[in-house]
């Protein structure tokens, strides 16, 4: 239960005695401790050391609550939750304890460590009393490091064996119910697994408890209840913690069956699940990836050995009807059942009409099944590819069964934006191949070697050795004089020493725009060719976009970049200048209970503006992809093929993640991408022309970046920014010095998408196997 600010402040001065019930429990024997990162948290956004007055602290709490309630995957939820776990040895609902968190930060910053400890003791006592009153057992002791990695600090925290011994002692006297309602976290998953293996008699009741939590939150509750949501997430954590040594046994499968958990899996993992659950749970479907998360575990527990002996439901073939009336019938069904499109739980589903590939993927996964679930059985007769082409050839005036004015606003937006997307795609493809006013067609578009003086040139290079590149990771490349070099920063702390090198010291060849070629051909393309493989490994195109297209992308960039930045990897956290706002699907870096290929928090559809933002991102991405298609067809084909093969969620023709960047910097590093990455410089306002250039170090070149240029490269090779000078950053601290878009497909996203697609394809087989077993 959350305390008011007044109660929290009073507790800091007058601690409540720890309640006792006879013999002290292990939790009561654990003394609170202060967190070593409190000063870093106090400096971070949105706190920013605004802790001196009560009004400031109240404002900070309100801002943190808005962040956490607006996005359950917010990093602040994880910080506050782990902070309480470290300091007090208890797991709490972080949103309900923000006042305590902020008050203790204020006390520590103010130098009153004793008061901070008193407040922690009070909070620990109250939380433990509440947990015991609810019959919950929390087998966690304080002293655990903040985060899953190793701590750099010495600690006298108890060993894992001591923790297991304490838990075993408690379990020997605790009821089965205490284990079933055990608060789950990654830190106790191994303890949970050990107890689970030794108490098979509890399995059925445990599965029944999990099933009831899902039923209550997803199906029974008419209104959103936060505690029930957290209980369902806790059940998901428990399901993921079941080891294969348990999950693949016949007795566990029986427990899943008799505990009704298999029936819950069948419903929640259905392609039409968004039509079965309560509307308030759809956002949770997006955040926690319920369908793919539970499908993955159900798949792991399923015995496919007797699949050949089971009569599977026959695959329903696509219809053959191609009469134009099928488009009218389809649109009428969408008007009658507007919830067919699962935009709340799968935001990119609104793009299902942007390309034929996207439509067919939707048709074969959720669209046809959802139509049938709603009673639109005529869908069985429709030829889907013809249906798509008919829809794309229509306009507002062509609909007869339902007037355009009577369409739901969401459907009007999807159709209008999809038509505009298709027109834009054709226009941009034409411009990319032959810009207006160009004196020649695009040389090199069909693979021939361009002549000297043409719009497309090739630079032959040799890839540098792996040993040399290993030494360059983390290096800051800059043209700045020593006294004007930009220092690293970031709440995670800069390394004690940073190596700076100039492009000249690295022997990088400069690639610059040729204004004469641009004046004659309206573009200038330079391809980087590998001497060994004889293939193109990257390149840059100057005058990438039509001026009107460029301005349109700048407008959408301004809206998109107002969202929170993505969390950077460990190597890049020392260079947290600027921001990088993501859109699309990806494998979570951590924090969410959902284990799947899920959306970034920015990618959501809660209103029409959100929907239009996603279409804007799709258009921006498609413009860049079409320019790549004209400049380097093999790289485009690989992007498209990876998207198709892995069944990735599409943003236009391909399935990348898009990042909107403002003043973004990176030291030399490499990523694990599966196809070429591409960046587009939308705007540049610097003191020197060589700032914010792109160093493609592993291939020995540096691209001079200017407004309206775009470059593609293999991100698994060492690359990074050419850092601006310190004087430039100081002058432009509040302005957009560099703006751009970066699109990429990460290897882990591709692999996870491919795996989950294969898992989801087996849904009908799993249902048949478990029905036979049941």
UniProtKB/TrEMBL annotation:
<feature type="region of interest" description="Disordered">
    <location>
        <begin position="1"/>
        <end position="33"/>
    </location>
</feature>
<protein>
    <submittedName>
        <fullName>Uncharacterized protein</fullName>
    </submittedName>
</protein>
<feature type="compositionally biased region" description="Acidic residues">
    <location>
        <begin position="147"/>
        <end position="156"/>
    </location>
</feature>
<feature type="compositionally biased region" description="Low complexity">
    <location>
        <begin position="9"/>
        <end position="25"/>
    </location>
</feature>
<feature type="region of interest" description="Disordered">
    <location>
        <begin position="139"/>
        <end position="165"/>
    </location>
</feature>
């Amino acid at each position: 239960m959350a305390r008011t600010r007044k109660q929290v402040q009073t507790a800091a001065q007058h601690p409540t005695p720890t309640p006792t019930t006879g013999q002290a429990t292990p939790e009561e024997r654990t003394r609170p401790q202060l967190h070593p990162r409190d000063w870093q948290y106090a400096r971070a956004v949105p706190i920013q050391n605004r802790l001196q007055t009560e009004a400031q602290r109240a404002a900070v709490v309100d801002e943190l609550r808005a962040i956490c309630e607006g996005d359950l995957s917010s990093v602040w939820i994880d910080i506050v939750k782990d902070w309480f776990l470290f300091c007090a040895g208890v797991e709490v609902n972080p949103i309900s304890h923000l006042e305590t968190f902020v008050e203790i930060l204020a006390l520590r910053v103010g130098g009153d460590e004793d008061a901070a400890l008193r407040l922690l003791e009070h909070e620990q006592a109250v939380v433990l009393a509440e947990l015991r009153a609810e019959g919950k057992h929390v087998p966690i002791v304080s002293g655990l490091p903040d985060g899953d990695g190793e701590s750099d600090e010495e600690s006298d925290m108890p060993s894992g064996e001591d923790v297991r011994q304490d838990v075993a002692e408690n379990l020997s006297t605790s009821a089965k119910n205490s284990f079933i309602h055990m608060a789950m976290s990654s830190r106790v998953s191994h303890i949970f697994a050990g107890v689970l293996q030794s108490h098979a008699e509890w399995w059925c009741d445990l599965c029944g408890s999990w099933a009831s939590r899902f039923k209550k939150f997803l199906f029974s509750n008419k209104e959103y209840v936060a505690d029930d949501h957290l209980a369902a997430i806790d059940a998901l954590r428990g399901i993921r913690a079941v080891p294969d040594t348990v999950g693949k046994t016949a007795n566990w499968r029986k427990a899943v069956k008799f505990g009704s958990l298999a029936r819950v899996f069948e419903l929640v993992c259905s392609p039409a699940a968004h039509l079965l659950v309560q509307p308030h749970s759809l956002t949770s479907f997006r955040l926690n990836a319920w369908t793919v998360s539970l499908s993955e575990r159900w798949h792991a527990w399923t015995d496919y050995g007797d699949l050949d002996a089971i009569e599977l439901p026959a695959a329903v073939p696509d219809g053959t009807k191609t009469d134009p009336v099928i488009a009218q019938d389809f649109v009428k069904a969408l008007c009658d059942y507007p919830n067919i499109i699962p935009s709340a739980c799968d935001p990119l589903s609104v793009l299902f009409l942007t390309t034929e590939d996207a439509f067919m993927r939707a048709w074969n996964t959720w669209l046809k099944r959802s139509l049938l679930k709603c009673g639109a059985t005529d869908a069985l007769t429709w030829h889907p590819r013809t249906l798509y082409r008919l829809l794309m050839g229509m306009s507002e005036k062509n609909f007869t069964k339902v007037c355009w004015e009577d369409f739901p606003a969401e459907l009007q937006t999807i159709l209008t934006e999809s038509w505009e997307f298709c027109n834009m795609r054709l226009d941009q493809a034409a411009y990319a191949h032959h810009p207006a006013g160009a004196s020649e067609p695009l040389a090199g578009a069909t693979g021939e070697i361009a002549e000297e003086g043409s719009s497309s040139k090739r630079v032959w290079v040799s890839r540098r050795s792996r040993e040399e590149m290993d030494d360059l990771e983390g290096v800051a490349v800059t043209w700045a004089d020593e006294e004007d070099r930009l220092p690293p920063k970031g709440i995670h702390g800069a390394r004690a020493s940073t190596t700076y090198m100039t492009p000249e010291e690295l022997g990088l060849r400069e690639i610059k725009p040729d204004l004469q070629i641009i004046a004659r051909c309206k573009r200038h393309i330079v391809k980087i060719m590998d001497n060994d493989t004889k293939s193109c490994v990257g390149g840059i195109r100057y005058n990438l976009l039509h001026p009107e297209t460029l301005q349109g992308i700048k407008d959408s960039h301004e809206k998109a970049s107002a969202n929170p930045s993505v969390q950077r990897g460990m190597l890049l956290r020392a260079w947290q200048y600027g921001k990088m706002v993501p859109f699309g699907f990806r494998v979570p870096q951590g924090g969410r209970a959902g284990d799947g290929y899920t959306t970034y928090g920015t990618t959501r559809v809660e209103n029409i503006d959100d929907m239009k933002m996603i279409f804007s991102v799709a258009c921006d991405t498609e413009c860049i992809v079409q320019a790549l298609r004209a400049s380097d067809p093999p790289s485009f084909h690989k992007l498209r093929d990876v998207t198709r093969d892995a069944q990735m969620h599409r943003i236009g023709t391909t399935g990348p993640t898009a990042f909107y960047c403002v003043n973004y910097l990176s030291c030399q590093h490499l990523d694990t991408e599966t196809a070429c990455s591409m960046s587009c410089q939308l705007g540049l306002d610097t003191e020197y022309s060589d700032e914010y250039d792109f160093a493609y170090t592993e291939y020995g070149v540096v691209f001079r970046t200017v407004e309206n240029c775009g470059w593609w490269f293999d991100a698994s090779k060492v690359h990074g920014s050419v850092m601006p000078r310190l004087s430039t950053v100081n002058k432009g601290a509040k302005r957009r010095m560099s703006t751009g878009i970066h699109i990429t497909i990460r290897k882990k996203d591709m692999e996870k998408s491919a795996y989950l697609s294969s898992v989801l394809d087996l849904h009908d087989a799993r249902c048949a196997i478990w029905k036979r077993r049941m």
